[in-house]
């Protein structure tokens, strides 16, 4: 080993010639993974460190559509140093007279708010001053977007329900802004007392109450959670605490970050092609050196160790460069990243993500260099007297097995660190399939080009014939270009297809079937009048209405619901509950029977069929639902086919009317109207009945589309790193073939070919390879897009030809530019000098 290290060290004195592509590919792949991991870790650290601020307290208890009882408040006061109440709901902000209305997310707070953090207002003032009662009007603060939408200014008045408020300031930021998740409207903050005469907070209306606590130091949160859930069991509380102050944001960031790491691994796989090609090319140049060492008595192990030491040193340099780049990029772009996030992110150098990226880099470098290194052992001393490169064929069995072990380690690390085992394994399988497809495509392009160059149909077209002959000739240019560029384009093609299909699912499916409005908080004594106004409008095609309550599934067959259903979404939070004597229109029963219209026995339940199958429910099972603090146990009488993607009015749970008799509730309605009738409908209904809230479905679709666009953009940026790595490999392949093109250009010039024709032949060759890579990438990316859309996103897949055409064109353009960039030197070389040197 000491001899091998001495030889390796002396050869490394020759510099990095031949290893620039190696270093660039490895550094880019490691940097991408390190940067994504660092940002994800920064956000998670921000959530952990600012959990109490994001949540609004050390812990909180949420109740569904009811406020805490006196007993509940006494209990909370006994375990906390301070308790603050927040009521959250949607409403219509309405200007006096016939001016505009706008949907807003109202947060009604008390004098304790905020327990932690600060609220920033414009103009600057304390929150309690902004919300105080002055001249008979309670104060309010609004998000700037809502202020602009309503065209009002501080000092102007507006209505929430029946109560008039005075706008005191713009709400620039508030500490618990990141914990609410997806909201349909910009926020408005008011004092709870200001809602007393609004008519918005009554039994049966849709609101959530939250009780945030400042706890004594050293409180055992786990123990207090168990104690609280037991003490307030009758109220069906939901518990949150500072250990995860923004659970929705945290989970979203974690999953998106993990997915981007997988995209980074795809980039590392693309870089692996360049790494392997660079090592193979370097060892080809060292054939005579290897043969000389063998002649002098060096064994196979010594030869392997010499070049393994060299590759190892260079791999360490590449990984270190990648870690430096990946660690600094989040810091450089920290202000931009922080501005785009609703929560604080502690962006700094983080050892964990860097160590993860380094591990990926070490495994990838070993995986992609082992094969060409192992084949160097087969160089014979006779190579000194015969012209030959690194021997073809398979290396020894031990290296084949080692390659398999390294591949398993890489996939295992990706599975472990991503936390998404299923997606990680399928991603690895997809990359492997794409790799095999592109290897096969490279060979097919080479063989097909060779055959086409010999056909009679191409006689008289020398440039095309020469381009095809060059593609099909000896060397690895075709395989390297199709593989490296194809993998990068495959990732982009998959992202493009998924993005287009997600947007298409909204734009393509919903507009034909979606209602114009969801109308909530219609009181029972208002439903007939609202129905008359809507159905008598000739521009309204349909109105569906049903009584609406919200309930939490607490038990299934006498057992805790979460023990039976696990982490299924159906038992997380509250679900929609309705009642009906007759089977509603457009309702399809898949199992069991609907109850008789005059049924008045024990409670019966009709449940959604698909979810029932997923958690193993059967007809005859029992289910306990907590509705406004009352436990109702019913028997499953039927299952219904419910399509939640239709944007129609759908309920998870339907019960017979007698089961919910006396329960306070409101009505929910959907209105299907022509576009030019929507403004009048909203104006008439919300002004006649100020307590009613109308949610525009088109606005909600716009918000969802915007969110999907943000996600797709983030993934696309990650995929662009993969493409950049592929471009580096492509440049390396073009640079490696520069010597051959110089000789070819010299021969063609000697035979009388003008520069323009030679350049056209080089360009045509590059275009053929780029087109081949693009076509295979469209197929591989389309297949991946179909799998992700169908099995991960659960949406219908429709192939998008425009995105596919862009990928093919992109492949042609990239290879064309790379080919032309390395064509000028061969074209400018003098034929006599080139031919004499070759001679």
From TrEMBL:
Segments forming domain ABC3 transporter permease C-terminal: 263-375, 719-828
Pfam families hit by this protein: FtsX
Gene Ontology cellular-component annotations: plasma membrane
Its membrane topology: Multi-pass membrane protein
TM region positions: 259-283, 304-337, 357-376, 397-417, 423-445, 466-495, 714-737, 758-787, 807-827
Record InterPro entries: ABC3_permease_C, Membrane_comp_ABC_pdt
Keywords: Cell membrane, Membrane, Transmembrane, Transmembrane helix
Main location: membrane
Cell compartment(s), UniProt: Cell membrane
Protein name: ABC transporter, permease protein
Organism in which the protein naturally occurs: Maritimibacter alkaliphilus HTCC2654
High-level lineage: Bacteria, Pseudomonadati, Pseudomonadota, Alphaproteobacteria, Rhodobacterales
């Amino acid at each position: 080993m000491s001899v091998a290290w001495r030889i390796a060290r002396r050869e490394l004195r020759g510099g990095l010639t031949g290893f620039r592509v190696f270093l660039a590919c490895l550094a880019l792949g490691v940097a991408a993974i390190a940067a994504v991991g660092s940002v994800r870790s920064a956000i998670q650290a921000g959530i952990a460190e600012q959990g109490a601020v994001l949540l609004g307290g050390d812990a909180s208890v949420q109740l569904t559509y009811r406020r805490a009882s006196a007993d509940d408040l006494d209990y909370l006061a006994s375990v906390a140093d301070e308790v603050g109440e927040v009521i959250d709901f949607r409403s219509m902000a309405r200007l006096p007279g016939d001016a505009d209305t706008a949907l807003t997310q109202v947060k009604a707070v008390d004098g304790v708010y905020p327990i932690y953090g600060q609220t920033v207002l414009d103009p600057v003032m304390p929150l309690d001053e902004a919300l105080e009662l002055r001249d008979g009007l309670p104060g309010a603060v609004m998000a700037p977007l809502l202020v602009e939408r309503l065209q009002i200014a501080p000092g102007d008045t507006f209505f929430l329900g029946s109560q008039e408020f005075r706008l005191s300031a713009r709400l620039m930021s508030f500490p618990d802004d990141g914990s609410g998740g997806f909201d349909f409207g910009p926020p408005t903050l008011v004092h709870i007392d200001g809602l007393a005469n609004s008519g918005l907070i009554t039994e049966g209306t849709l609101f959530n109450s939250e009780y945030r606590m400042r706890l004594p130091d050293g409180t055992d949160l786990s123990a207090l959670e168990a104690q609280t859930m037991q003490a307030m069991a009758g109220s069906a509380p939901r518990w949150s605490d500072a250990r995860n102050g923004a659970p929705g944001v945290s989970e979203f960031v974690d999953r998106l970050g993990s997915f981007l790491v997988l995209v980074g691994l795809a980039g590392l796989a693309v870089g692996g092609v360049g790494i392997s090609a660079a090592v193979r090319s370097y060892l080809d140049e060292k054939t005579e050196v290897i043969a000389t060492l063998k002649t002098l008595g060096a064994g196979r192990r010594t030869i392997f160790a010499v070049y393994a030491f060299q590759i190892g040193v260079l791999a360490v340099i590449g990984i270190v460069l990648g870690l430096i780049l990946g660690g600094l990029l989040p810091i450089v772009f920290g202000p931009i990243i922080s501005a785009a996030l609703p929560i604080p992110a502690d962006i700094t150098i983080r050892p964990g993500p860097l160590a993860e990226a380094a591990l990926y880099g070490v495994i990838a470098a070993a995986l992609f260099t082992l094969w060409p290194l192992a084949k160097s052992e087969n160089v014979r001393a006779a190579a000194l007297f015969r012209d030959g490169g690194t021997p073809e064929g398979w290396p020894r069995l031990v290296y084949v097995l080692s390659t398999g072990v390294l591949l398993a380690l890489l996939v295992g690390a990706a599975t472990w660190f991503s936390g998404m085992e299923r997606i990680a394994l399928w991603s690895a399988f997809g990359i492997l399939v794409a790799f095999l497809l592109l290897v096969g495509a490279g060979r097919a392009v080479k063989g097909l080009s060779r055959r086409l160059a010999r056909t009679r149909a191409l006689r008289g077209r020398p440039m095309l014939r020469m381009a095809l002959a060059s593609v099909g000739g000896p060397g690895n240019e075709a395989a390297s270009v199709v593989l490296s560029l194809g993998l990068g384009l495959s990732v982009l093609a998959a992202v493009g297809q998924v993005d287009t299909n997600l947007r298409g699912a909204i734009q393509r499916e919903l507009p034909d079937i979606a209602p114009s409005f969801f109308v909530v908080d219609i009181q029972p004594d208002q439903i007939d009048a609202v129905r008359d106004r809507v159905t008598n409008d000739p521009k309204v095609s349909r109105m569906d209405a049903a009584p609406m309550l919200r309930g939490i599934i607490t038990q299934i067959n006498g057992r805790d619901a979460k023990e039976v259903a696990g982490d299924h979404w159906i038992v997380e939070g509250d679900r929609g509950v309705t009642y009906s004597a007759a089977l509603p229109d457009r309702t399809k029963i898949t199992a069991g029977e609907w109850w008789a219209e005059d049924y008045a026995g024990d409670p019966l339940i009709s449940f959604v069929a698909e979810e029932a199958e997923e958690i193993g429910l059967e007809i005859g099972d029992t289910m306990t639902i907590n509705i406004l603090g009352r436990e109702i146990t019913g028997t499953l009488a039927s299952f219904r086919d419910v399509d939640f993607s239709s944007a129609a009015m759908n309920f998870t749970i339907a019960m017979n009317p007698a089961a919910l008799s006396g329960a306070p509730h409101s009505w929910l309605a959907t209105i299907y109207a022509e576009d030019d009738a929507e403004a009048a409908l909203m104006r008439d209904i919300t002004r006649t009945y100020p307590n009613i809230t109308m949610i525009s479905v088109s606005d909600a679709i716009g918000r969802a589309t915007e969110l999907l666009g943000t996600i797709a953009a983030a993934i696309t940026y990650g995929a662009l790193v993969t493409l950049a790595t592929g471009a580096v490999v492509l440049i390396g392949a073009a640079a490696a073939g520069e010597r051959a093109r110089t000789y070819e250009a010299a021969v063609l010039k000697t035979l009388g070919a003008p520069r323009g024709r030679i350049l056209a032949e080089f360009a045509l060759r590059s275009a053929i390879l780029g087109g081949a890579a693009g076509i295979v990438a469209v197929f591989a990316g389309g297949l991946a897009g179909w799998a992700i859309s169908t099995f991960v996103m659960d949406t219908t897949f429709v192939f998008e030809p425009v995105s596919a055409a862009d990928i093919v064109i992109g492949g042609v353009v990239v290879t064309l530019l790379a080919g032309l960039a390395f064509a000028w030197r061969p074209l400018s070389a003098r034929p006599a000098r080139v031919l004499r040197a070759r001679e």
